Amino acid sequence: AQTVTQSQPEMSVQEAETVTLSCTYDTSENNYYLFWYKQPPSRQMILVIRQEAYKQQNATENRFSVNFQKAAKSFSLKISDSQLGDTAMYFCAFMTSYDKVIFGPGTSLSVIP
Amino acid sequence: SQTIHQWPATLVQPVGSPLSLECTVEGTSNPNLYWYRQAAGRGLQLLFYSVGIGQISSEVPQNLSASRPQDRQFILSSKKLLLSDSGFYLCAWKHETNRPYGYTFGSGTRLTVV
After folding, report:
1. At the topology level of CATH, where does B3-113 sit?
2. Tens digits of per-residue pLDDT, A45-65?
3. Cβ-defined contact of A33 to B105 (cutoff 8 Å)
């Protein structure tokens, strides 16, 4: 079975500091896509960053970057210069060849002023 | 532009009553459509997905059903709601050529069964 694990239910970080959220996944497929979604208190799901498994280069979107370790099936999210607006639930997600997205249980991130 | 609409935003229904949540997509054709449920403080569980009109795949056996009467319309229904049906329901779509971009989500429906 394909699963996504996020071992940190809750995290906090001081404003302007850097934080890393962990994610591991399990799959037997070789081609897939990985995502980090953000869900602020409004509960709107927002795509933060994506990574194609066949690309070795780690994806970067402004203050957000990932550390993709395909052999270890690890996909962590680093948020630099944390801002109050980054407070949200963060979901790691994996898209299968059947285009179904499987989500992890989420990590609640609080940015402390 | 491509947009997804989901309504109602909130709903309070008594146990045993019927349910109908609607999701529509604009600005695209032949989208893959998905219904997810998010229980309080938990992750997203895929309920149903559809790759075309009248084509519904169910991921988990439950009290809910889904239908796709039109290309850009996806409906989540129940004949008799249970307390356990309470949660936050999200509709999502993905264009078949938009694979690297994952899903685009609707704004969600908060359902409380009392």
Report:
1. Immunoglobulin-like (2.60.40)
2. 999 999 988 888 999 999 999
3. no
